[in-house]
Amino acid sequence: MKRLPQPGAGRLPALIESILFVADEPVETGSLAKALRRPRAEVEAALEELETWYEDRGLRLQRSNGLVQMVSAPEAGPYIERFLGEESRQRISSAALEALAIIAYRQPVTRAGVEAVRGVNSDGPIASLIARGLVEDVGRAPGPGRPALLGTTMKFLEHFGLKNSGDLPPLAETSPPNRISANGEGEHAASSRA
Predict the structure, then answer these.
(1) Nearest-CA neighbor of 134 among 166, 114, 154, 156?
(2) Where are the domains of the chain?
(3) Is beta strand 27-28 parallel, antiparallel or unpaired with respect to 67-72?
(4) pLDDT tens digits along 94-133
(5) Is the pTM of this model over 0.85?
(6) 3-class SS at 118?
(7) Who's near 140: CB < 8 A, 6+ residues apart?
(8) Domain 90-167: which topology?
(9) Cross-strand pairs, 151
(10) Which residues of the chain, if any, have pLDDT below 50?
(11) Is domain 9-76 classified as CATH 1.10.10.10?
């Protein structure tokens, strides 16, 4: 194998960009450091430089759990779909979107955890999300049966135009629903007359 010269720190962003461009899947930052024979801190600094450079361009760096990949900018999505002829692609059902939201905000979560929030069986919607590559098994919960824990994927981040799961919008605060008392009146209504 041909011995390559060690790249200087100023050349790292361009080399990382080239590697990410040809990578089929997200790449571990440690793998980048190993391939480039540079300290991980220098690779991280080069990735931050690339992220800044891409801010007003058609590409973005997407990072999650030590993985990084190059993706198209979210605002370009509809044009890319039109170009690829995917505009009429089947949309995600409302049941699957509900399950996806629960998984995204509560991850890692079990199927039972999703069903407890939704109040209905969620096998179909979860199977659909796994088939689309938006959700995956990320581990096992402690306890009886060690059920699978679900979490979102890099494809989820790409689909929704997020750099990482920390970019999810905050959940809106909602007041608890009125409870119906034994006489059929809402508790909030009854307490306001007291």
Answers:
(1) 156
(2) 9-76, 90-167
(3) antiparallel
(4) 899 999 999 999 999 999 999 999 999 998 899 989 988 8
(5) no
(6) helix
(7) 146, 147, 148, 149
(8) Arc Repressor Mutant, subunit A (1.10.10)
(9) 136
(10) 88, 175, 178-194
(11) yes
